[in-house]
Amino acid sequence: MAKSLVARKGNIECKTKVKTGCATCRIRKIKCDENKPFCQKCVKTGRTCDGYEPPFRLFTIPDVKRLPTGSIESDGGLQSVRPTLMEIDPQHVDLLNRYFSTKTLFDVKLGCGEEASQVLQASMTDTPIRHAISSLKALREDLETSGDDPASMAQHSPNYHYGLQQYSMALRGLVSSLSYSSPDYSILKSALLCCQVLISIEQVRKNYAAMAQHIIRGFGIMHEYRARPYLSTADTLVPAYHSQIPFLDVFIIKLFAAPCKFADAPATTDENGSSLSPCPISPRQETVEARHLRTIAPDMRTQLTRIATSTIEFLDKVSRVETLNIALRLLSEKVALLDSLESWLSNLELIQTGTGAPGAEPLSVSFLRLFHLILKIVLLGALDSSPDLDAQLQTENDRLQRVADSVGDRVKTYVTCRGTRTGRVDRSPVC
To answer: Mind listing the GO molecular function terms for this protein (predicted)?
Structure first.
């Protein structure tokens, strides 16, 4: 009897722990087939699949001192929104639409009024979204008041600290709501709407690495819970798992497609009138080829923006597709858009190779690469459920994160360099 118990204990200890898969298979300690949104092993055996670990994860931001909730006076802007409101003030919608992107500092019209209205409507009953809006408002006001002057950045205002505090509270609330093994529609909607604001917050903070993390995780939610209809491997049209999930991808494309101020550090001179090297983000010598690349970059952006407009139109068709024949025709349109993206990238590489400009490429071109990768990721996931899709998306997500990490580092260098050279800086480059 004793030997039998020892043998059974040994068998249990030798079993490999299940670290992936749905919650039900992990509890049963069996290999999960990891089909989304529900594991087929659970479905076929009549069990309830309890879903997967949430794609959102909390990543750290600088610790801030806790401030009293009422320590920042409201000026009648977004902070005055309370859950008891029954209607959305159009002025609040316009203000949030403006705060979504730092491009609006240059009088750019963003065109995200519908998204702003959805976010504000949800904030009436959703605490994390409310915290996120308060954070965005405080951080944006701090940016507009203090600018990018290194001296002001070294001594952050109460608005800035309050904004980080609200950001931290929004993240904690969002992670808590997504901790459910099978989040329902209301939780998914809240997560994607909140994600829109978090992406905007990180743009204000010039933390493009964290911005990319939010983008990738938001796209992960849309992909995992099938925000749009898709074609199965058997050429069967499968309806959206959750209809009316907010389309985060369209929002992000709008952010990047909006007109942009190209900001490349100019050369400066010393007291003797001698030319000094510009910041590391620009070519070290202002050659004819380098100037040519700067001239070409806006035109390359125009071409990419046209593809972005076509991508939004394509996504709208995918959302409304009802028959297999139409879906198959849309696949051809998708292939054409992906080909256009590859052609655009090839042209950009040819231009850069032809200029032979030394040093790093202009920061504006790096932002175009970010935009290109976002469009490619969005298009790859549309209408598709092929076995190798997850691997393809992971590869492109990794590329997006690497480019965002590089852009973030270079923007910090840009701000520091401009502050050192001139004592003040223009608004930071925007995507």
So the answer is: DNA binding; DNA-binding transcription factor activity, RNA polymerase II-specific; zinc ion binding
